[in-house]
Design goal:
Strand order of the largest sheet: 1-2-3-4-5-6-7
Largest sheet: 7 strands, mixed
Shape: globular
Number of helices: 10
CATH superfamily of the largest domain: Metal-dependent hydrolases
Oligomer: single chain
CATH architecture of the largest domain: Alpha-Beta Barrel
CATH topology of the largest domain: TIM Barrel
CATH class of the largest domain: Alpha Beta
Strand content: 15-25%
Helix content: 40-55%
Structural class: alpha/beta
Length: 282
């Protein structure tokens, strides 16, 4: 089945509504998608409700992307098909949301004290759907809107990085905890875009002891050689391979919508579903 297992909506740092994602996915010929917003799962029910009333044909999988920190590395853990009512999973999302709010409020305070840039929490919160995940892109946009910088890119360069005097790292859960909680909730934990992490192989092996079941080998940042490297690693370690566009917004430079444009082999969906059966039977 033609698929895309890594998609963001405006419930985190994407620009499209879940309804718009459904429409776009159908328009580009996708048959199955996973919504993987950062640290929340709110878009899934909205998309499913719209799908039922629209009459469109599309399969939507429950997904999530958990942002974690490990030894100064930002490690993203994708989760698929977990029980979102599982108490530990719900608590995980609560911890992550609280950490986001705390980080944003601390950065707002430092921006005012050290840079004279005054933004309000509401200026950031209103950029996402109700209950959605606020984060760095929203802070950068609020800084720019307040006249603190001339562009979002400049806001990132000056303020949204570890060496900035106004930046505060988010107090997230560890990737080990994220993997374990997703797995214990009946889900499939997968490490996202591992090319971003230069300790990927050792970390993947470590996370396998906590329940990691897959590697996102197919990603728009991954070259063919990178795809081959992580696909071979997955095979050697007995892990499944997943992939997706990591869609956030249309490409402004050329007007393209890249949703589903990243080549994801059709057999990946079958492997994902087989893995879910194995986890359920364990």
């Amino acid at each position: 089945m033609k698929s895309d297992f890594h998609i963001h909506t405006y419930y985190s740092d994407g620009v499209f509504s879940p309804e718009k994602i459904v429409d776009t996915a159908v328009d580009v010929g996708l048959e199955v998608i996973a919504l993987t917003d950062h640290d929340n799962v709110l878009s899934y029910d909205v998309a499913q409700k719209y799908l039922k009333t629209s009459g469109k044909k599309l399969k939507i999988l429950q997904g999530v992307e958990i942002n974690t920190l490990y030894k100064n590395y930002e490690v993203h853990i994708l989760g698929y098909l977990m029980d979102t009512e599982n108490s530990d999973f719900k608590n995980l999302l609560k911890i992550q949301q609280n950490a986001r709010i705390e980080q944003v409020n601390q950065i707002i305070d430092l921006l005012a004290k050290k840079e004279g840039i005054k933004i309000k929490f509401e200026d950031i919160k209103k950029q996402v759907a109700e209950g959605g995940s606020i984060g760095r892109p929203h802070i950068a946009k609020a800084i720019t809107n307040a006249g603190g910088t001339s562009s979002v890119i400049e806001a990132y360069a000056k303020y949204i990085h570890d060496d900035s005097p106004v930046y505060v790292a988010r107090k997230t859960v560890s990737p080990q905890d994220a993997v374990e909680i997703i797995y214990d909730a009946g889900g499939i934990p997968v490490i996202a875009h591992p090319h971003d992490i230069d300790i990927a192989e050792s970390l993947i092996k470590e996370l396998m002891t906590h329940g990691l079941r897959g590697i996102e080998a197919y990603h728009r940042k991954h070259s063919p050689a990178c795809v081959e490297y992580f696909s071979s690693m997955a095979e050697n370690l007995g892990l499944i391979v997943t992939g997706g566009s990591d869609f956030h917004a249309p490409n402004i430079m050329n007007g393209q919508i890249i949703l589903g444009k990243n080549f994801v082999p059709e057999w990946i969906y079958d492997k994902l579903m087989q893995e879910k059966k194995c986890i359920d039977m364990a």
